[in-house]
Amino acid sequence: MGTEKLRGMEHAGDSARREQAITERPLTERTEQALAAARIKPPAYVTKELGERPPDPTKAKAWDRGVRGSRATAGNTASPTRRTPSASRRGASQRTARERV
User: Fold this and answer.
1) Helix count (H) and strand count (E) of the chain?
2) What are phi and psi of 63, to 5 degrees?
3) Which residue has the higher pLDDT, 10 or 43?
4) Is the pTM of this model over 0.85?
5) End-to-end CA distance of the chain
6) Contacts by 46-52 with C-beta closer than 8 Å and gap 24+?
């Protein structure tokens, strides 16, 4: 019975993907702007945790990733990258969805 309901559900189509892209674009832009601002004048909490941005390109990329992570924990919910749930979490949410039906 539950499986039949799942089979009858509509798949996410192109319009859903376009809508997601449209809503994610401004969030990504804001995150990039915040990163650019942090490169110019890092907030105190960033320099306390990460220090100044290193001149070495490889280390600078790591610093940028750290800034993105610290901004997410400092109240900014925008995430510049889409994260895919791990297989175990994906399986758990699929089980939960089946149980709800």
Assistant:
1) 5, 0
2) -60, -45
3) 43
4) no
5) 8
6) 46/70
Q: How buried is residue 49: exposed, middle or buried, by Cβ count under 10 Å (0-12/13-18/19+)?
A: middle
Question: Can you read off the two tokens belonging to residue 52?
Answer: 């100044």
> Which tokens belong to 68?
């993105």
Q: Please tell me the distance from the alpha carbon of residue 64 to that of residue 50, in angstroms, as a whole number.
A: 10
Q: What are the structure tokens assigned to 18, written together?
A: 């376009």
CA gap 40, 61 in Å, rounded: 15
Cβ proximity of 2 and 101 under 8 Å: yes
Percent of the chain clearing pLDDT 70 (strictly above): 61
Q: What angle do CA 13, 29, 25 make, to 5 degrees?
A: 10
Contact between 60 and 53 under an 8 Å Cβ cutoff? The reply is yes
